[in-house]
Amino acid sequence: MRASRPFRWFAEIGDDPALAVSQAVNLQRQVPLLYGLLLINSLAVAITHRHQAPAVLTISVPAVLFAITFFRMIHWLRQARKGVPTAEQARRQLRAITAVSGPVALAYVGWSLALAPYGGPFEQAHVGLYISTTVIGCIFCLIVLPQAALLVALTVLPAFIIMCLARQQLIFVTIGINVALVLAVLLRVLFNSFAHFEGQVRAGTLLTAQHAELQRLNEENRRLALTDALTGLANRRRFHADLEAWTTTHAGMPFAVGVLDLDRFKPINDTYGHHVGDRLLAEIGARLRHAAGPSAQVYRLGGDEFGLIDPDVSGFTRTCERLLQQIRAPLQVGEIVLHVGASLGVAHCPQAGTGADDLFDRADYALYHAKHVEGGGVCVFSAALETAVRADRAIEVALQGSTLEDELTIVFQPIIELASGRLSAVEVLVRWTSPVLGEVSAADFIAVAERSTAIHSITRAVIRKGLKAAQHLPDDVAVSFNISACDLTSATTLAFIRREIERTGIDPGRIWLEVTETAVMANAETAAQALQAFRDIGVHVALDDFGTGYSSLGYVQRLPLDKVKIDRSFVAGLDGTDGDTIARAVITFCHTIGLSCVAEGVETPSQWRMLQEAGCKHAQGYLFSKPLTLDALLALCTEWERQRPWGARQRQRGAA
After folding, report:
1. What pTM value is reported for the model?
2. DSSP per position, 244-312
3. Is 618 helix (H, G, I), strand (E, B) or coil?
4. In whole angstroms, how far apart are CA 518 and each of 12, 372, 493?
5. Which letter does DSSP use for residue 86 in this model?
6. Domain residue spans in the chain?
């Protein structure tokens, strides 16, 4: 078994791919030097023996050996120019040089021994020096291939020792023993060096493997960082990166950008819980991925919002229809069958813009238009929307550069007690006259302000002016302020309202804060906490525009509310056939859960009468008064007190 180990050592040459390549690369630099050493040293010996030895030994034999050596040197120089060999090529090269090392060494040592008897002591010493130095040089050149170096040593050393002993002179015997010891030490150093070389290669291979594994892990982490964990879709970060890439690396190429938002998702999430909402989103994500087709990339941007990028502009309309159809299809989660819809805003490059930010903003604006103006479906950004965007941006710029405290004014919409016709409260409404834009509709600038920090400044200005005006109103008249979704959860706004109430000395019970149903139901749990925080400072809370959103009646019951304002759309329906059915149902529901009602948009005496018969206590609308300045309101209050039977006359006029 032990005897087979040396043979196995030779048989394993080149079996380790990484080691073989490293050996071959080193030998490509060193083997040409080895052959060059042979040529130079051998030529020197042939020259010194040209007059002492036969021509066959100084010319013929060296010519053959030198030709073979020269061609081998040229071969290895060509191999070096080819660069790093493959593992299989390296294996063949190592085995080839090992195979020829013994015969080449034997040929040269045989030739040198044939020359040894000729000449005097200097020529004979030259032969000994030639053999010893040449074999040492060859071993050094083969240091990365110990099998070949060992073959050279085992071929040359015995012949050299025999030559020295045959001279039967002490000096030659001593030289032979000395060279043998030097070669033994040299071989030991060679094996130690090769072991170090082999260890470095294996360590390098390990580091390479570790580096490859690290690269794989980094790539996996990058993939996870760009993937939404819930739906498996690419996430918002990937969406913006891809959008940026499309606008830069594919500049000039048309493509479509879509931003999709689910309808009625919040009530489902709030009613059935986040686990049902998550399963709904996962299923919607799968449907979108399946329906998008081969060209469109689908992303989850966050919450119930998704993004789309599609280079197939001509077919994107059909893709949108397919996506909305898939979303509208009933979806079953356990025992629950869910129905949702979607709104989709689309921007085309280059019609809507060529920059990533511009395209996303325009798609998002088209989504807003689809959701809040068109009531759902698909909206493609157009020239008309571009005009609206520019108008909004003009408003935004004007808001940023305005002194709101000076430019904002307030008016008051009276809220009447239906039974007596008495003024019970006023709703504070804001008006803005910009020195740049002139008079701007509240519906326009409030919507823009809510998308920036300007809404907080507007709210503070309106609260400050409204509380100051309340000091001039009768103590039994409440003052109602509209609070945006941004201010609803703002601790700064809450603290400001508390300070202003304390500063003006107004009874907090006279203050009403109105929040829209849409703002509250966007996140019912957070809204409930915010509403309770306002009630804790003594103010009352009213739910505005009730019936226009998608709120769960159960959640309305659990919200900390004091009053509900019935939307004007229900009041307008009172004049139709059986038009009071919905209004009566809303009023009855409010009374059942202990909330008072205010009807908005009352314009006819018949609406007044029907609301009162249905049990509604308060109302506001143009039948009673348009929004008034403080002076006009105070004058109207005086007139109403003087004509208190006015309410009875109005009811009689309505009955006629």
Report:
1. 0.55
2. HHHHHTTTT--EEEEEEEEESHHHHHHHH-HHHHHHHHHHHHHHHHHHTTTT-EEEEEETTEEEEEES-
3. strand
4. 78, 11, 20
5. P
6. 4-208, 234-381, 395-630+645-651
Tokens of 174: 């001593």
Please give the single-letter amino acid code of residue 61.
Answer: V
Phi, psi of 84 (to 5 degrees): -70, 125
Q: What CATH number should be reported for the domain whose range is 234-381?
A: 3.30.70.270
DSSP line for 230-251: TT-SEEHHHHHHHHHHHHHTTT
pLDDT for the residue numbered 479: 96
pLDDT tier at 430 (50, 70, 90 boundaries)?
A: very high
Token duo for residue 409: 């004014």
422 Cβ contact list (under 8 Å, min separation 6) = 416, 640, 644, 647
Which three-class secondary structure state does DSSP give residue 338? strand
Q: Do the strands 478-482 and 423-434 form a parallel or antiparallel pair, or are they unpaired?
A: parallel
The CATH H-level (homologous superfamily) assignment of domain 395-630+645-651 is EAL domain (3.20.20.450)
Q: Could you confirm whether 567 is annotated as catalytic?
A: no
| Tens-digit pLDDT profile for residues 249-288 | 877 789 999 999 998 887 788 778 888 889 999 999 999 9
**pLDDT confidence of 401, banded at 50, 70, 90?**
confident
Q: Which of 228, 263, 304, 361 is catalytic?
A: 304
Nearest to 508 by CA among 479, 528, 473, 466: 479
Contacts of 142 by beta carbon, 8 Å cutoff, 6+ apart = 27, 30, 34, 97, 101, 148, 149, 152
* Helix 454-470 vs helix 383-400: crossing angle, to nearest 10: 60
Q: Mean pLDDT over residues 95-119, rounded?
A: 83
